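Example record for the data management plan.
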Amino acid sequence: TTYPPRGVNPLYIALGATHVVTLMNPTGDAWTFQATAGQRILIEAQSDEFSPAVEVYDVTQMRLTPSLSLDPGLATFTLPYDGYYLIVVRSQDGRMGAYSLRLLINP
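Corresponding structural encoding:
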């Protein structure tokens, strides 16, 4: 896994926001958000056109989401510290297309 995906400049997503965009980069899309230690968040990527997977990294490039998940398009966890985090949305099946990305706090 490349952090962030090559050739991708992260977009900002606010806590509580939902964005609908099109995945056009085969290495994935990158999103950044700012949060506080102890906040519980939910990140969800959904698509009718491809099977999305969500990865979350901290500023040290440590992956916070498990590499194997029953629902790779969904991540729920408590943030370890104040600061910025990176979300990477990738296609599991090599296809691209429209998807929604949702970032909720205290789900």
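Summary line stored alongside the record: The chain has a mean pLDDT of 88.
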